[in-house]
Design brief:
Elements (H helix, E strand, L loop, with lengths): L8 E5 L4 H12 L3 E5 L13 H11 L4 E4 L6 H15 L4 E4 L14 H28 L4 E4 L3 H5 L5 H21 L6
Parallel strand pairs: 1-2, 1-4, 2-3, 4-5
Length: about 190
């Protein structure tokens, strides 16, 4: 049995490559209309590219529906605007995959605090910004599915990734609380 996402709208952050791209392509293959969000930066978050537009073209070439969004997950207003555009174009938002992330790997002794902070901003606050931007919509429509991309680094640690580990375990706690608060509204 194939799971269908026909008539569902999905937002995938960090969908210009890697795991995010795989999520976006698979959701589209299963019938979802997909908002492909990505700044198109390098793994450390620097630079920009048209990565989101390339994934949208790949989805459209396969017969799917998608739109690109280059908003920064660290900017709440940009995420509110992204959700509004998704609702205008596709009629709602049913799925959110918080996948955007960057790496600034260094041992903690050599790590600058701005690099520590930026990783937390993208992973934790980025996920909070996106989730808050869709939360009322999902509650009002009594349906929503939110996925957080996390890592074993949050549970077990990994040398040179104190910032990443802190962010990923923070997402686990955030997810568990949202599970409790969203259950009554069929937001899982």
């Amino acid at each position: 049995m194939t799971v269908s996402f026909k008539d569902k709208v999905a937002i995938v952050t960090g969908a210009g490559g890697g795991l995010g791209k795989a999520y976006a392509l698979e959701l589209a293959k299963r019938g979802a209309k997909v908002v492909v969000n990505d700044l198109g930066g390098a793994r450390d978050g620097t630079g920009t590219s048209d990565a989101a537009a390339q994934v949208v073209e790949e989805i459209k070439s396969a017969g799917g529906e998608a739109m690109a969004n280059g908003g920064s997950v660290t900017e709440y207003e940009q995420m509110v605007e992204m959700v509004a555009k998704a609702k205008e174009a596709f009629g709602g938002v049913h799925i959110l995959i918080n996948n955007a992330g960057i790496l600034r790997d260094k041992s903690f002794a050599k790590m600058d605090m701005p690099d520590f902070n930026l990783v937390l901003q993208v992973h934790v606050m980025g996920s909070a910004n996106c989730t808050k931007a869709v939360w009322d919509t999902m509650r009002d429509q009594a349906y929503g599915r939110i996925l957080m991309t996390t890592s074993s680094t949050g549970l077990y640690g990994n040398f040179g990734q104190a910032n990443y580990g802190a962010a990923k375990l923070g997402l686990a706690g955030f997810t568990k609380t949202l599970h409790l608060e969203g259950a009554k509204y069929n937001v899982r």
